[in-house]
Amino acid sequence: MRVMLSSCTEEMIAAAAQKLKNGNLVAFPTETVYGLGADATNQKAVEKIYQVKGRPENHPLIVHIANINQLEKWAVDIKPYAIQLARDFWPGPMTLILKRSSLAKDFITGGQESVGLRIPAHPVALALLKNFTESGQESGCGVAAPSANRFGAVSPTSANAVAEELLPYLNINEDQILDGGPCLVGVESTIIDCRNEQPIILRSGAITAELIAESIGIETSNKSVDEIRVSGSLESHYSPKAKVILDQQPNSGDGFIALENISTPEGVIRLASPKTVAEFARILYASLREADARGLTKVVVQQPEGNGLAVAIRDRLQRAAY
Length: 322
Ligand code: TXA
Ligand code: MG
What we know:
The chain is an alpha/beta fold. About 30% of the residues lie in helices and about 15% in strands. The protein contains ten helices and 16 strands. The model has no long low-confidence stretch (mean pLDDT about 90).
């Protein structure tokens, strides 16, 4: 029987897993954003990711795994609270930074002693990872995948956005883009450094400080960790071509993104009117891309207030506006 996973069939996913095994790239949906995947144990394949993204080579990549048992292949000295987080929030929008095992080579970690690991929740991603990592082959241990955008640009939340951005750089005969529909979360995973007594949030996301504290009974810290290279922590990142302006009155001809209850001044081009903070996160990147597609020079965003996912939205917006 053919099982449809969004617009992907099991056969398409098996073919994509085979491409990964052959050392090619597969862009795939996750619940956060689309990722550009390669076999995380194949240096040549991982180097292709850097070429396609135009990303500096000393930036580490997240390794995506299918199953919590694969944690111990990639990481050592795992703290009990990290295991608790994995049990509570995986599959889900959370990346754990742990001490690396010898499997996590410098080309994955950027030469650092840590490795980032995540089990994504999207059914297509999970099916791809299961097919790839449970084949019994030595290479199938994990899929390295950054967001499937050019370095510094807005992360893609649809297969179309991936194609628009990366098709000129992909090898169309060998690489593949899997379409799993629009991403449900819309901002990248929360990154938590779990190597110390107290977890440190390196990048905010849908797994919030409140959820983490509730899960493990330990407060997180946001201590600055300058020695760790997180490209998402660069001051300028996630930027569309249009200039992003925060919390100001838009002028005629400007793009405008704000919660539904905020009205649109005359002549202003409303790009999105999310009803909730979750919807705000879900549509944010597509709306910024829409501003570029319409050739707008300026897009004004009214930032959502409060804790929870609003923290991640403001984090990305401030970098987009930098
Ligand atoms: O939601 C996500 O996390 C998406 C999907 C595809 O899983 N991936 C993603 O990857 O956002 P990327 O490469 O665009 O951003 C991951 C961030 C980078 O800023 C990278 O520097 C950081 O994670 N990172 C990866 N491994 C790390 C490590 N060992 N230590 C510190 N930061 C790390
Ligand atoms: Mg990225």
